[in-house]
Amino acid sequence: MNREFVEALTQVAVERGVTADELIAAFEYALRQAYLRQRGYKQKEVEEGLGPVVEVQLDPQTGELDVLEIRTVVEKVENPDREISLADALTYDPDVQVGEEMEFPVEREEFTRIAVLAAKQVLTQRLKEAERNRVHTEYKDKEGEVITGTVARVDNRGSVYVDLGRGEALMPIKEQIPSERYHPGQRVKVYLKQVQRGSKGASLIVSRASEELLRYLLRQEVPEIAEGIVEVKAVAREPGSRSKVAVMSHNPNVDPIGACIGHKGQRIQAVSSELGRERVDIIQWSPNVREFIRNALSPAQVGNIEVDTEGKRARVVVSKDQHSLAIGKAGQNVRLASKLTGFEIDFEEAEEITDLDAAILRASEKEEKERVSQEAKNRFESLFADSDE
Question: Which of 85, 311, 317, 380 is the most buried (most CB within 10 A)?
Answer without folding.
Answer: 317
